[in-house]
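In this section we walk through a basic example: taking a raw amino acid sequence and producing a predicted 3D structure, encoded as discrete structure tokens. The instruction is simple. Fold the sequence below.
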Amino acid sequence: MGAGTEGGDQPVEVEGRRLVLRNLDKVLYPATGTTKGEVLAYYAAVAPALLGQLADRPVTRKRWPDGVEGQSFFEKNLPGGTPGWIRRIRLPAPGSTRDRDMITYPVLDGLPALIWAANLAAIELHVPQWRVGPRGGVRGPDRLVIDLDPGAPAGLAECVEVAFAVRDRLADAGLRAVPVTSGGKGLQLYGAISGSQDAMVVHDYAKRLAERLERELPRLVVSRMTRSLRPGRVLVDWSQNHPAKTTIAPYSLRGAGGPFAAAPRRWQELESQRLTQLDHREVTARLQ
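The resulting token sequence is shown next.
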């Protein structure tokens, strides 16, 4: 799928689904001049990898209708006018009393659904660590995630140092960690798990791991969200394992500055001490 025609809307057919792509020449990233058409082209290019990360997960979208220097908003519910062929799942709203409030989420299960979301300027795609079954039931989490978030003047180099410590602790528990640069300031570590454990068991394990690292590396690591503790240290954020929380999906674009993307990395890249965040072109080239 190309970037589209100059200035106008473009009717397209994507794997048998008809969509009208709008405002393809609108600049979404002013710092680089990256247009909405280029964003759509990126999502089409990485779809084979990204869709595996989104499969059977309800997707919370962060949208920038006027570009990343404009206003943004998180969207959970399906918007009006959503095509009937978009897969949807109805789940209790996080924190609602006795699960009375419900949200209808999209499940982006193919290229047409992915392009539909991107066409709404849903630049960021956030998902939980669990999936839904074919009848809509929520399953146990199939992955654990540790988010490493540096507090200035700490940066990506400090996150890498902490990442190796997290990797070793997870290996002690029989988990193989996969690093993902976030496309923002830090990185995440993912470990595949069985899906048979309750989400709060995984959540509590991740919290204990973060607290242990804070005791072992007190000058480098903080496990608490308190902002006054964070300058110069790396927050080992365990909270995204809570069943109500979501994390940026690997291969999703980010909506700040330039068109950087969350990107799976090799441990050898972290060892090189020259790790940087990757933009949309670099991620596409790596996949090719």
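Looking at the output, two observations stand out. The longest helix spans residues 36-54. Helices lie at 36-54, 111-119, 156-172, 199-216, 267-271, 280-287. In the next section we compare this with other chains.
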